[in-house]
Amino acid sequence: MKRTLAIIVLAAATAGCAQAQKGPSFDAWFVDKTMRVDYFHAGDAAGETITLDRVYDQGAWAGSRTRLVDPFDLGRYRVMVYDGAGGTLLFSKGYDSYFGEYKTSGPALAGVRRTYHETALLPYPKKPVRFTVEARDRSNAWKPLFSQTIDPADMTIVRERPVPGVQVIEVIRSGEPRRKVDVLIVAEGYTAAEEAKVRADLDRFAAVLFGLEPYKSHRDKFNVAGVFKPSAESGCDEPSHGSFRSTAVGATFDSLGSERYLLTEDNRSLRDIAAHAPYDTLFIMVNHKRYGGGGIYNFYCTFTTDNQWHDYLFLHEFGHSFAGLADEYYTSDVAYNEFYPAGVEPAEPNITALLDPANPKWKGLLSPGVGVPTLWEKAEYDEMDNAYQKVRTEVNASIARMKREGADPAEVALAEEKSERLSREHAGKVDAFLRASRFWGRVGVFEGAGYAAQGLYRSELDCLMFTKGAKPFCKVCEAAVLRTILHYAE
Predict the structure, then answer these.
(1) Is 20 a residue whose pLDDT tops 50?
(2) What's the longest Cα–Cα distance across the chain?
(3) Range list of H helices, 222-294
(4) What is the Cα–Cα distance from 280 to 70, expressed in whole angstroms?
(5) Is the predicted pLDDT of residue 18 greater than 90, yes or no?
(6) In this structure, are strands 114-125 and 30-44 parallel, antiparallel, or unpaired?
(7) Would you say residue 383 has pLDDT above 80?
(8) Separation of CA 359 from chain center
(9) Distance between CA 461 and CA 440 in Å, rounded?
């Protein structure tokens, strides 16, 4: 009861701040439609640019009409929409992006420039507006990156019907989109013959979502729908395995060079398919048995449907894309280099650099008598987990090599079963180790988070954002998710 009350008080306080920042009247500045702004985001670690691609007149506005200015200050980028004549801020939204992750990678640091396609959705303005993108610098200060006036009456705005051949499948309908959290799930890698599996998977993962708090207690604040455009082939691309599939949105493993990272660079196809239904937040549901996923704040998240960790993947990646939660793990290999600059407080609500030990980010939730920082059994954990990560990397590299070289399918199947078994066994050891700690269930400031073994901290020993398995959010993450729900739902 104390846990639930503390979370509700914290989330409600933030939601109250959000309501205080409602901004201008929707009806005075906007009509009930969505303006989709597509643009190209290019560069490397040293610099980046944005150029406008296309602007679309696209369907009803799914977002709130009373909370137009983003109160959360999350993400490495933000869209700011101003009245073109007077400069009044009309709408804003923070987000992360594929390019934002790329620019911390090895190739970007080496000066290799890449271009990514991105989308911003905003309510359709009545008059010309100034569309602006800002980016955080290395100290987390906001700097202008791009600005251009968009006239809603411009003849070049695309007003054609959405791409044909897409089914909308309603899963849960609780009310008008503008008053609910509208979750849209794009089915990827399902052929026309697999429509029944699409529908079954949509129902299955909706049940997973509402089996976890705080979604469970706020199910009535959500609409959930799926969109299905049949793919020519089942599955998705696996470059390190030498396997490629023709699919609706081009999802692929090995994104940014990480074997388990699953994203798509075909943003235009994704948004064209998603345009058939209103949405606040977007899933890509990938019809595959291998472990893989990804989540980018206010951009999209991905997960595979048929691996042993599918529930965890679905919920963990949604934590990133919906509420801006950071990864709390720090021993697994990732494609990033210094994703969180040393000495700078991360924007994400669930990790901290602890620059002011007397006032940690989640001070109001700290357990009585817990030290800051909290000296947990980190050395023993690191030894155990690093040993497993080394074995996991070797086994997965072996599987990839066997597949590329056309090894006997029976041998490949044995290697894959070994990988899955090792994963299960290690997860059980981790759970037992953490539960045996004297700090289990207590809120403190535990070193090790955000891909960094030193210098970044999380609030509890374990959390859905830290380790795999059937487990709840920590108190800090749950409060962040709840305040996001309350922001979207009226």
Answers:
(1) no
(2) 68
(3) 267-274
(4) 13
(5) no
(6) antiparallel
(7) yes
(8) 28
(9) 6
> SS3 for 477?
helix
Is the dihedral angle over the CA atoms 457, 459, 465, 471 positive or is it negative? positive
Q: Does position 225 have pLDDT exceeding 70, yes or no?
A: yes
Q: Enter the tokens of residue 312.
A: 């965890």
Question: Tokens for 353?
Answer: 């650099």
The encoded tokens of residue 24 equal 């201008």
In degrees and rounded to multiples of 5, residue 318 shows phi and psi of: -65, -35
Question: In 98-151, which residue ranges form alpha helices assigned H by DSSP?
Answer: 98-102, 106-109
Query: Interior CA angle at 448 toward 70 and 208, to 5°?
Result: 60
- What is d(CA 225, CA 223) in angstroms, rounded to the nearest whole number? 7
Q: 3-state class of 47 per DSSP? A: strand
Q: H or E element: which one contains 448?
A: strand 446-449
Cβ atoms 393, 426 nearer than 8 A: no
Give the position of tokens 């799914």. Answer: 62
Q: Are 297 and 321 in contact (CB under 8 A)?
A: yes
Task: Please provide the size of the chain in residues.
Answer: 490
pLDDT higher than threshold 80 for residue 109: yes
pLDDT band (50, 70, 90) for residue 4: low
Name residue 417's amino acid.
E
Residue 91 Cα distances to 53, 123, 137, 348, 407, angstroms: 21, 8, 22, 21, 55
Q: How far apart are CA 115 and CA 182, in angstroms?
A: 29
pLDDT, position 332: 77
Strands 129-136 and 114-125: unpaired
Place of tokens 């206010």: 298
- Quick one: pLDDT at residue 338? 76
Identity of the residue numbered 369? G
Burial of 157 (0-12, 13-18, 19+ CB in 10 A): middle
> What's the pTM?
0.94
pLDDT tens digit string along 230-284? 999 999 999 999 999 999 999 999 999 999 999 999 999 999 999 999 999 999 9
Which bin fits 204, alpha (ψ -120 to 50), beta or left (φ > 0)?
alpha
Residue 86 binned pLDDT confidence (cut-offs 50, 70, 90): confident
Residue 411 has pLDDT above 90, yes or no: yes
| Poorest-pLDDT segment among 20-24, 204-208, 279-283, 469-473 | 20-24
C-alpha 84/C-alpha 450 separation (Å) is 39
**What is the rounded distance in angstroms from the CA atom of residue 89 to the CA atom of residue 74?**
18
Fill in the DSSP letter of residue 64: -
pLDDT band at 7 (very low <50, low <70, confident <90, very high): low
| Owner of token pair 């949509």 | 202
Residue 44 Cα distances to 106, 107, 217, 227, angstroms: 10, 8, 43, 34
Helix (H, G, I), strand (E, B) or coil at 25: coil
Distances in Å between the alpha carbon of 42 and those of 80, 108, 118, 270?
19, 11, 10, 19
